[in-house]
Design goal:
single chain; alpha/beta; 139 residues; 6 helices; 4 strands; globular
Length: 139
């Protein structure tokens, strides 16, 4: 199973979701991407790193922001968006045959802690969403 987590910049929510899902489902191949190029090449936000450290979730310190590609749409089994805006952007970017792979991580929005400053709330919702998808998809 190849899963791609997606948010706007790929420095806060989607890398958080990537590493939470990797911890929960080590047999899955999980990556994260951005819908934009705004943060391209930048590291994981320090607030996300702090939350991952707080909950002892291993992460790759060399991870850098990367925009989703056409290859990602072809190769992924599941593409999970952090909010409605990212969901709409992904659907606009994706080839027709990939549309069925694109879903929201949760029923609702995972707020962007870049704006809210609340990495704890984002973590709680990311963890909830990951668990729900694991239950839905299984191994």
């Amino acid at each position: 199973m190849k899963v791609i987590m997606v948010c706007l910049g790929n420095i806060c929510r989607s890398p958080m979701a990537e590493f939470v899902m990797k911890r929960e489902m080590p047999t899955w191949h999980v990556e994260s991407r951005a819908t934009s190029t705004w943060e391209h090449g930048n590291p994981i936000h320090r607030g996300t790193q702090a939350i991952l450290q707080k909950y002892a979730i291993p992460y790759d310190v060399s991870k850098q922001s990367q925009q989703i590609s056409q290859a990602d749409f072809r190769e992924a089994d599941l593409i999970l968006a952090m909010d409605q805006s990212n969901l709409e952007d992904l659907r606009a970017m994706a080839p027709q045959e990939a549309l069925a792979k694109i879903h929201p991580l949760i029923d609702g929005e995972v707020p962007d802690p870049w704006y809210t400053g609340d990495f704890e709330e984002t973590y709680r919702l990311v963890q909830q969403g990951c668990r729900e998808w694991i239950e839905r998809v299984g191994e």
